[in-house]
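Subgroup meeting minutes
Present: P.N., E.W., G.H.
Scribe: E.W.

1. P.N. recapped why we're keeping a running log of single-chain structure predictions: easier to compare across weeks, and new members can see raw inputs and outputs side by side.
2. G.H. added today's entry (449 aa).
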Amino acid sequence: MKLISCEKLEKSMVELQFSIDAETFKSAVNTAFKREGKKYAIPGFRKGKAPKAMIEKMYGKDLFQYDAINDLFPENYEAAVKEAGIEVVGRPDPEVVSMSEDEGATLKVKVAVKPEVELGEYTGLTVNKDVKTVDEADVDAEIKRMQDRNGRLLTREGAAENGDTVDIDFEGFVDGVAFEGGKAEHYSLVLGSGSFIPEFDVNVKFPEEYQAEELAGKDATFKIKLHEVQYKELPELDDDFAKDVSEYDTLDELKDSIRKGIETNHEKQADQKVENDLIDQVVGGMKAEIPDAMIESRIEELVQDFQYRISQQGLKLEQYLQYMGMTMEQFKEQFREQADKQVKMRLAMEAIVAKESIEATEEEFEAEIKRIADAYQMEADKVKSLVDAAAVKKDLAVNKAIDFVKSKANIVAGAAEEKKPAKKTTRKTTKKAAAKQDEEPKEEETQGE
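Output recorded in log:
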């Protein structure tokens, strides 16, 4: 391979031109003929026995030359990229300039590359930190959730009431014909929960905006078989309840633990918002011509991540899209804003990494390997053999860049941070109680994840 030129184009696109020598190209053409020539039938020759010249005369001189280009392209393109010293972020768009067995081949390739980033201010930034005070209603709501989780389901005799759980078989018909997805056995339904058609009865009308267009606005009849009606008996909210569901002796101690858990969560949310606001300021001040390929690539990664997560619940992406009444393109478009933010953040932090010479230490790398190993219940050595060490260290450096920006910022505490002192507990938080606190809503997801 010989690199002929590397020309920068608009919006972080590059055009590479490189050549493949005649000897290498001719050898690849002959290899392609031996592999593909057997497929062609030529009058007067048994199939697979026709000479190369006869096949080319009938199907075109460049028939096996294009096969040779396809065979040679990956390795030679990779070599051209390496020699040009560019970091590719998109798929190449190749074009054959010329090719012949006597002179070799010349190719021209347009490809998106990582853009050059011009940073604005990233130190001395000012941001407000507002920590929400704990609303006692939130504490009471969590106690209610714990009470509900620990309720007992008992069988009810007689008519079902709102809030009861019914075990039913059903099958739905429109115009006397059973429709897809309208049948289930031993379906558990909480009456009044809104988890089924709101006006659920023997005869119903689907809403005009129902997700399945073929059923929207249609009258339907459901044949229903009722197996059982159950109601939930809730435990009394007293000290005995606290002892049963936690390691605390009194209900006040349990509430105090929940209150502290909410305070901790609010603190984390405030810290995360500070981080996100600082990142927004850094990104807003930078200049870069970001190629569309980077955004599209990130969208694909987000789609794949979503697909993996729902597959863990036994659901295919195609089924999900059908249920939501969306096309794949509409689904992908939902991720565009998120992908745009994440790509810009990554570029900004990588630029800070380079400017400030930020690196991940070996200790930090080993700690990250251990974290991954623990999360997936694997041996650390096994994790090391599977991951790209350079990529892991790069990710760690990016996280350190975020911490660097935060450490150099002027963080102004808001008035909401002034909280009433929490009651003291008479017992230390235990693992069981901590597990209950972990059920609180998690903090906002960072823009960088």
